[in-house]
Design goal:
Helix content is 43%, strand content 14%. With 81 residues, the protein is an alpha+beta fold. A hairpin with a 4-residue loop joins strand 2 (67-70) and strand 3 (75-78). Helix 1 (16-29) packs across helix 2 (35-45) and helix 1 packs across helix 3. The radius of gyration is 13 Å and the shape is globular.
Length: 81
C-alpha cells in the first residue's frame, strides 16, 4: 500500500537495500540463479524501473560478502556463514 505518489528518486522499492533484500530472498529459495533469471524475478516483483538498480544491489551484496558470482554459469550463489 502506498500512501503518496513516488517518483524514481523517492520510491522505496527502487532502493539498493530493497533490491538487495529481494536478491537474498530469491537466493534463499534457489541455491544458484542465473543473472537473466534473477533480473526477471526482480522485474516481476517490482517493475522494469528496477533494472538500473540491479547492478548496484549486486555490487553491494558482493562487497559485503553475501553473494558470489560464477562466471562459467553467469550465475549468483548466496554465501552461507
Amino acid at each position: 500500500m502506498r500512501i503518496a505518489g513516488f517518483d524514481k528518486n523517492t520510491d522505496p522499492e527502487l532502493t539498493v537495500l530493497y533490491i538487495s533484500s529481494l536478491i537474498l530472498s530469491f537466493l534463499t529459495e534457489s541455491e544458484i540463479i542465473p543473472y537473466a533469471d534473477l533480473q526477471g524475478k526482480i522485474v516481476s516483483a517490482v517493475s522494469v524501473k528496477a533494472v538500473p538498480v540491479i547492478p548496484y544491489a549486486i555490487s553491494f551484496l558482493f562487497t559485503i560478502g553475501k553473494i558470489e558470482y560464477t562466471a562459467e554459469l553467469d550465475s549468483f550463489r548466496r554465501i552461507k556463514v
